[in-house]
């Protein structure tokens, strides 16, 4: 069977109607690709609409404050994407006259734009014949052609990119790239794909060799760190609270949070009361509000929200409404929505 022809026929019949497919505008395509990194389409779609409404052009995004960008991004995760998005918008708007580079090599020079995103923009916006290689592409090609290369290896991307380039119709790379990714997202899914109804099943080597569940091969495992984060949810005599901005290069950089006490293990109310009194001498009462487990790619976070009362006026305190307006990690946002009435 003809892999490319069969794939594109399937795509034209079953593709999803997605807003960034109705345009060749590199701004919209760039925005969607950054948002959809490690994010499902259903989760990313509302954010795409929110951003394009708030920032219709790259110049609008460039002129926005980082705080507003982070607030709109809140809940999408991997916040370095949002910070890099903002930095790149400034470069394109202020140094490139609002025009994105029109080729793969120059797109790669932009902050936060890697090989995958550069290839997507170059092919979708400028019809450059460059293959897109993501998890979906690894999976489809490794299964159909029976490739047992470890995709976590350093040479895997070059091998799969070369194969994709060979299969790609050079006069229409955009449709091929979209079709390959869509097929992996909808049909050749990671677990329990319905191979019986698959348009490609006649030529699929993984199916013929009963290796669908074994491909692609990925040996490298992510090391996960466990952390215990204790948040002091302060309320003073005026019902104000305290929020602090995260700094450094760790998770949630530049987002806001309640005062934090990080401990090596889970601690009790007595230990938190002592730590709170050291930071805020005006504290009169401490009680546990909620414990939450929050999993990130490389970290398992055990969060405890401690409700801390003060009879005095806290320094640098702000109203709860002001705190709600700040960009915060989604776990803190969820706590605020549940516990602040």
TrEMBL record:
Cofactor: binding details: Binds 1 [4Fe-4S] cluster.
Q: Which GO terms describe its biological process?
A: base-excision repair; mismatch repair
Q: Which UniProt keywords apply?
A: 4Fe-4S, DNA damage, DNA repair, Glycosidase, Hydrolase, Iron, Iron-sulfur, Metal-binding
- Transmembrane residue ranges: none
Q: Name one Pfam family in it.
A: NUDIX_4
Give the CDD domains listed for this entry. ENDO3c (cd00056), NUDIX_DNA_Glycosylase_C-MutY (cd03431)
Q: Which residues form the HhH-GPD domain?
A: 35-186
The EC number(s) this enzyme carries? 3.2.2.31
| A single GO molecular function term of this UniProt record | 8-oxo-7,8-dihydroguanine DNA N-glycosylase activity
SUPFAM superfamilies for this protein: DNA-glycosylase, Nudix
Which cofactor is essential here?
Answer: [4Fe-4S] cluster
Catalysed reaction, written as an equation: Hydrolyzes free adenine bases from 7,8-dihydro-8-oxoguanine:adenine mismatched double-stranded DNA, leaving an apurinic site
Family as reported in the entry's similarity comment: Belongs to the Nth/MutY family.
NCBIfam families named among the record's database cross-references? mutY
What is the documented function of this protein? Adenine glycosylase active on G-A mispairs. MutY also corrects error-prone DNA synthesis past GO lesions which are due to the oxidatively damaged form of guanine: 7,8-dihydro-8-oxoguanine (8-oxo-dGTP).
The identity of this protein, by name, is Adenine DNA glycosylase
Naturally occurring in which organism (per UniProt): Flavobacterium caeni
